[in-house]
Design a protein that fits this description.
362 residues, 2 domains, 13 strands
Length: 362
């Protein structure tokens, strides 16, 4: 926070100086742009908000969801990954590593991650393209310029989504990025788990058009056990967004044995309905955001996101076991039932993602 406050202080001092001083006497020194550490930029996305979007994934996360679909984004620093199917076993990487951090055995090469500096030498030298460094530092003005190249396909509804990891782990870089993009007229969404001081998100709200907000587990003890932190801050921050009538899409990942119980969905639904109660009974049709819908504090959409295993190779590439490697797709009948329960509290509830027609495929 201290950094953000300093940023605001410096900005307002600069604005004051510009008003009071003749232009020719103004110091022309520009504020340096902060650097962001990003994992990836995904283009033409249809899953991170309305319309066609470009999603930028920030690195670093303050939760530890065991089902995470972007495990390379959890560490804020760049990380080395290895894809065995592309490895020809030449051993060049082992010799090239200045840290002597690579060894080889029966199962292929192994990284000593405590020695690795993510310098990228092994990836550059590898003839098979089997090693990749996940993550790069980029000044925010350059990142904004890169994202603005996609302007041509955003259309009326699309734009840029900031995702992660948890974007707020890099809140100064994210704030500056949203300022630059908004100044260029871009529609901006942010995908967040909401587990931080509300002031971080509040500072960004003037530049954000939509918040994609995760509500995963309602029971705080279970939340703490599985995700590494209780959910009181997340629930309180959600209420504050609703009170401020911010445009929100709630997202609940449907994870086998963790979030996919009827009790959990009912409890989240009840919370959404209560948070939307502006003192009166909730009118029928709320949440559909249709013209004439009374102005109560509800999200525009609630998505139950079906589990999939598309990230399994990412865990292998990081030498990490994944608790969900043998889990199947969510069964259609199950997610339909959960969606029906969700719709009792919020008629706009939908499910998204691929599902299994009968029984989960391993
Ligand atoms: S990224 Fe650099 S330090 Fe890390 S394993 Fe490769 S060569 Fe060694
Ligand atoms: S340099 Fe590449 S191909 Fe050769 S052993 Fe290392 S990872 Fe495998």
């Amino acid at each position: 926070m201290a950094g953000s406050e300093a940023l605001f202080r410096e900005t307002s001092q600069k604005e004051m100086t510009q008003k009071e001083m003749p232009q020719k006497e103004m110091p022309q020194k520009e504020m340096p742009h902060p650097e962001a550490v990003i994992l990836d930029i995904q283009r033409m996305s249809t899953e991170d908000g309305p319309g066609l979007r470009t999603t930028v994934f920030f690195k670093g996360c303050n939760l530890s969801c065991p089902w995470c679909h972007n495990p390379e984004s959890i560490d804020k620093k760049p990380v080395v990954t290895w894809f065995p199917r592309r490895c020809i076993g030449c051993g060049i990487c082992r010799k090239a590593c200045p840290q002597k951090g690579i060894s080889s055995g029966e199962e292929g090469i192994r990284f000593n991650r405590s020695l690795c500096l993510a310098c990228g030498t092994c990836a550059e030298e590898c003839p098979g393209g089997a090693i990749e460094i996940k993550g790069r530092n980029i000044p925010v003005d350059k990142l904004a310029a890169e994202l603005l190249k996609d302007f041509f396909y955003f259309g009326k509804d699309g734009g840029v989504t900031l995702s992660g990891g948890e974007v707020m782990v890099q809140h100064e870089a994210a704030l500056e990025l949203t300022r630059l993009l908004k100044a260029a007229g871009i529609n901006i969404a942010i995908d967040t788990a909401g587990c931080y001081d509300f002031s971080l998100l509040e500072a960004m709200l003037p530049y954000i058009d939509l918040v994609l907000y995760d509500l995963k587990i309602f029971d705080s003890e279970a939340h703490k056990r599985l995700l590494g932190a209780g959910n009181s801050l997340i629930l309180e921050n959600y209420r504050r967004l609703m009170d401020m009538k911010v445009r929100v899409w709630v997202r609940t990942p449907i994870i086998p044995g963790a979030t996919d119980s009827e009790e959990n969905i009912a409890a989240i639904g009840n919370f959404i309905a209560k948070a939307g109660r502006a003192g009166d009974d909730i009118p029928a049709g709320r949440g559909e955001n249709s013209p004439g819908t009374p102005a109560v504090n509800l999200p525009e959409r609630w998505e139950l996101c079906a589990f999939n295993k598309l990230c399994r190779d990412k865990y292998d590439a990081l030498d990490r076991d994944w608790a969900y490697k043998d889990a199947g797709l969510t069964e259609k009948t199950h997610i339909e039932k959960l969606t029906m329960i969700a719709a009792r509290y919020f008629p706009g509830a939908v499910y998204t993602g691929a599902v299994a027609e009968t029984g989960g495929e391993p």
